[in-house]
Amino acid sequence: MKTVMGIINLQEENKLIRELTDRRAVESLPFAGRYRLIDFTLSSMVNSGIQNVGVMLPDKPRSVLDHLRSGKDWDLARRHDGLFYLPAPHDEAVAARKGDLKNFYHNLDFFEHSSQKYVLLTSGSFVYNVDFSQLLRFHQNTDADITMVYYTSTHETPGRNVVIETAENGLVEDISEKQAVYDGSKVAMSVYLMEKRIFAEMVRYTFEHGGQDLLMDGIIRRASEYNIYACEHDGYVAHVDSTTAFYRANMDLLEPENWEELFMGRNSIYTKVKDEVPVQYKETADVRNSLIANGCEIRGEVENSILFRGVKIAKGVKVKNSIIMQRCDIQEGALIENVICDKNVVITKDKWLKGAPTYPLIVTKNVVI
Amino acid sequence: MRKTECLAMILAGGQGSRLGALTKKIAKPAVPFGGKYRIIDFPLSNCANSGIDKVGVLTQYRPLELHNYLASGSAWDLDKSDGGVFILPPYAREKGADWYQGTADAIYQNLNFIDLADPEYVLILSGDHIYTMDYSWMLESHKMNKAEATIGVFEVPWDEAPRFGIMNTDKTGRILEFEEKPAKPKSNLASMGIYIFNKSYLKKYLEEDAKDETSAHDFGKNIIPKMLADQGRLYSYAFDGYWKDVGTIESLWQANMDLLQDKPPFELNGDWKIYSSNQPFPPHYIGKEAKIKKAMVSEGSMILGEVENSIIFPGVRIGKGAKVTNSVIMPSTVIADGAVVDYAIVAQNCEIAEGAKVTGELGAITVVAEGETVEAAASGKQAG
Hints:
The structure holds 2 protein chains of 2 kinds. By secondary structure, chain A is α/β, with parallel strands linked by helices. Chain A has helices spanning about 40-45, 60-70, 90-95, 100-105, 110-115, 130-140, 195-210, 215-220, 245-250, 255-265, and strands at about 5-10, 30, 35, 50-55, 80-85, 120-125, 125, 145-150, 155-165, 170-180, 185-195, 230, 240, 280, 285-290, 290, 295-300, 300-305, 305, 310-315, 320, 325, 330, 335, 340, 345, 350-355, 360-365. The longest helix of chain A is centred in the middle third of the chain and has 13 residues, at about 195-210. Chain A is globular. Chain B contains 8 helices and 30 strands. Chain B starts with 5 loop residues before the first strand and ends with a strand.
């Protein structure tokens, strides 16, 4: 995998998840108690042996930069290669164009100057733990121009997704963007492997001919020009593209099989280390079916919930079916059900908060209720 | 190296034979403590938080795991280009190799390292105490007293004083007399094994001591008494926080249990962070039928059974119907379905099989050594 460089595209638009992404990119959304979404793609790359990763910065880059820093927590602070940040273009003629393609075009020299032969193009809004080295082997065996990864959906979900149809040997016969996926749909996981030569030509040609969106204009529209294959991933996967999807993906991890597969296998998921103490359960604690991150202090009742680092649950509190992010403080007698509390929220004494099971109530960052 | 004001030297070579089964494979400072830490995290984090960024760690007994754990020192923010953690094992010279003969000899053998760092002061710490302390205040007091040596002391209950090295001081804190384990103590100020010396003063005494063939080359037994006999300016520095020697199974167990108090004896989650080398584990999972109270649980664990009054380290599995009470379960150990663990310390990578029982009692804590499997048939009360 030393011949592959990784790119994580953090330029996704996400109108469906606005409350939580007001001040941060989707990819830096806190997830599963201690992670940010981008950790899954980045860790998968590192575990697969990729040592050169370019991160295409989003428009609100602070939380991503603060999270990744030198890349040390992913072992990417290296003398050669390692982690690179790819900023958006600044010269007006290019910056005025729409879409994410201009960012790739602007950073073409970074790709071309890297020593790797292949490019692995990904997005940072998927939750998975994939070994990409198998993808490279598949790519070389099929002699494809582009190899992509998909999963087979088991239920109907709304939301924009790239759906493909494949022949038995994995040859992609159709690729299109749909507004919903159905049971049995083959859904792309935004993972594309190709030779750098093909990638650079794709970016340059498409951009110079008026294209805006790498996926839409570079791949989907020009699909017939390429020999595209697809590889199925049969492990856990979630695309966090809406608040409901975010909530559901978190709750999925309360299934021990998912937790086990995603985190406890041969390949770990890395994240920024915070040196929190182990969770302190006090005399009055009562916790069931929950995921609890270090640094929490629990005196109340917690059920079917996910507590991020450093959350305080006071005596007499009941938390159910909720996601409580970093450093929230839930004070005595509060009742919380079907709620997502963003970072640093304080719920004062005896307040009751309840959302619908299918539509959680969101409390935004730093709010005191 | 740039000149340093204060160099810390951590004595981490002790075998810790009183910890028995727990130190069969690892040195005492590497023994896990408090749900995610190792004992040496405490002096190292104290150094990092006190602004001491050059730390020599003297290792000797079973150093592999300790060296591996310390690595570059980055976990404690001690991976500096001009400083950080220096691992100092015994090494061979022209005339052959020597093990460290005692605490003073260990420092003596590294005098060339101390000369290289060229500090004003040398802070000597041991790797087997649990406490959080700002050494910079102790250094301030050392300077204010114009002392040649300052010894950290801790008030112990009078009836326990005969177990410690006791300092008799005057009103200003100047040490008049030092008695090792006195039958009739005149004071209850026990030495914590924390010393600050002026470097040149220390060097002179270490060199003299090295020539003395009758000496045990120990700070408490030889160096300090000699300094006092020479009327040296030795001062005490009283520490009134939580301090625990975890040299025995019972004290290690008790120090772990102390963390479970409703208000732990020292701030765990405050500004004074205890750093440790973190493994990439997810938040722990508490199952649908689990019962958990008065416990500390770390990342990567899965708890399906019952846990009370216990400390659970990372990556531990506690199966359905299993019951863990009054115990310490170290990393990656499996307590299978229906197993019972009470008043025990179970070391790393053990397996307590389905239905097996490991039970001790207060004052006779049962220990399961690293990597062992306890089967249901062979279970019952085991020797501590």
